[in-house]
Amino acid sequence: MSAIIDRIDFTGIFNIRYKKIYYIIWIFGITYAVLSLLTNFYLTFLSLVGLVVFSAILIRPMFGFYLLIITLLEEMVRFFVMTQPYVTTKFYLHLIFLYPTFIGWCIAKSAGIVEKRPHNTLDPLVILVVIYQTVSILWAPSLEVSLLTLIILYSNFLLYYLPGALIRDQKTLKNCINAWIITGVIVGIGVLLTNNNFIHIGDTVLINKDMGFMYEFKEHHNRASGFAGSDHAGGFLILTSAFTIGYMIVAKGWKKILLFAVVIFLFYCNIVTVTRSTMFGNIALFFMFFFINPLYRKKLIKYSFITVILSFFVIIAAKPGMFDRTLIGLGIIDSPIFYEKEITSEETLENISGMGIRIIWWKDSLKVMLDDPSRLLLGLGLSGFVYHTTSPEVNGATWAFFYEMGIFGTILLIFILINLFTTFKPYFVNINFKEMGYPAIMLICAVLGYIGDTGIHGLIDYDLTGPGSRLVWFPLGFIMAILNIVKSRQLENETK
Question: Rounded to two decimals, what is the model's pTM?
Answer without folding.
Answer: 0.88
